């Protein structure tokens, strides 16, 4: 699926074929590097996808895909991408886990701003990644990636009402998981 998304960013068949070869050749290496840095499966996947976008911008530098230079370039791109993601992720000591515009009346999820230690952030991210995909994806996009609600609806091809329902249900499930881990009272 991710490969398909990357392919849509390229115009010529030649470049698509080149990216496909690079991706198939180095995806495991790139994932391993990203996972070693980020220590999280989903974050590592995101890093590889983002690195794929950067590879597209540098396709001309991959003259011989099987060369050591190409391998090193792919590794360097994903390494820098993962390090930037880790730095960005660790900067936040506060996470906004509630949006007033999507607050449903019966939703008693979390305080508007929940101050977290880095360990608590890791546990929350882990809980979100364990949710059913239709709930976890929305929570991830909204609160981790900080994507606008309309953009989430467009990306997932769902209605605003469906978005609000999934968001509310996802928050309730996440709330239960956080209570089980004694992160909420």
From TrEMBL:
Family the UniProt entry places it in: Belongs to the sigma-70 factor family. ECF subfamily.
Database matches in SUPFAM superfamilies: Sigma2 domain of RNA polymerase sigma factors, Sigma3 and sigma4 domains of RNA polymerase sigma factors
Pfam family membership, one: Sigma70_r2
GO molecular function: DNA binding; sigma factor activity
GO BP terms, alphabetized: DNA-templated transcription initiation
Keywords of the record: DNA-binding, Sigma factor, Transcription, Transcription regulation
Domain RNA polymerase sigma factor 70 region 4 type: 123-173
Name of the protein: Sigma-70 family RNA polymerase sigma factor
Boundaries of every RNA polymerase sigma-70 region domain copy: 23-90
Superkingdom in the source lineage: Bacteria
């Amino acid at each position: 699926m991710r490969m398909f998304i990357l392919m849509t960013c390229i115009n010529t068949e030649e470049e698509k074929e080149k990216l496909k070869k690079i991706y198939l050749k180095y995806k495991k290496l790139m994932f391993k590097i990203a996972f070693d840095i980020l220590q999280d499966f989903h974050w590592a996947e995101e890093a590889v996808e983002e690195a794929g976008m950067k590879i597209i911008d540098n396709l001309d530098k991959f003259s011989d895909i099987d060369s050591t230079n190409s391998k090193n370039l792919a590794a360097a791109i994903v390494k820098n991408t993962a390090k930037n993601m880790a730095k960005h992720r660790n900067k936040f000591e506060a996470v906004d886990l509630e949006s007033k515009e999507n607050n449903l009346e019966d939703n008693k999820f979390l305080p508007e701003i929940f101050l977290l230690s880095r360990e608590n952030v890791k546990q929350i991210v882990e809980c979100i990644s364990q949710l059913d995909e239709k709930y976890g994806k929305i929570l991830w996009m909204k609160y981790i990636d900080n994507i606008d609600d309309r953009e989430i609806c467009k990306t997932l091809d769902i209605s605003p009402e469906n978005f609000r329902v999934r968001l509310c249900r996802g928050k309730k499930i996440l709330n239960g998981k956080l209570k089980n881990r004694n992160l909420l009272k």
